[in-house]
Specification:
Low-confidence stretches: none
Oligomer: single chain
Distance between the termini: 51 Å
């Protein structure tokens, strides 16, 4: 069975170079795409929840039914 895509965790740990090299060899051997994933340090949820706290207008769209609408 040949792999089409290989995802590898890319970080700054001491094992990262070895992990990435192994993933690269596997991708090459299977003619697969190699995808590296790394953390940015900022959670998407933290960013979204704090968006309105900077003093600017909240960028989220208004809920359907107006401000006082309640689910039925």
């Amino acid at each position: 069975m040949a792999y089409q895509s290989i995802l590898v965790h890319a970080d700054l740990s001491r094992h990262a170079p070895q992990r990435i090299a192994i993933a690269a060899r596997l991708a090459h051997a299977h003619q697969a795409h190699l995808i590296g994933a790394a953390m940015t340090g900022v959670s998407r949820f933290t960013l979204e929840n704090n968006r309105g706290m900077r003093g600017g207008a909240d960028q989220r769209p208004a809920r359907a039914g107006g401000a006082g609408a309640r689910p039925v």
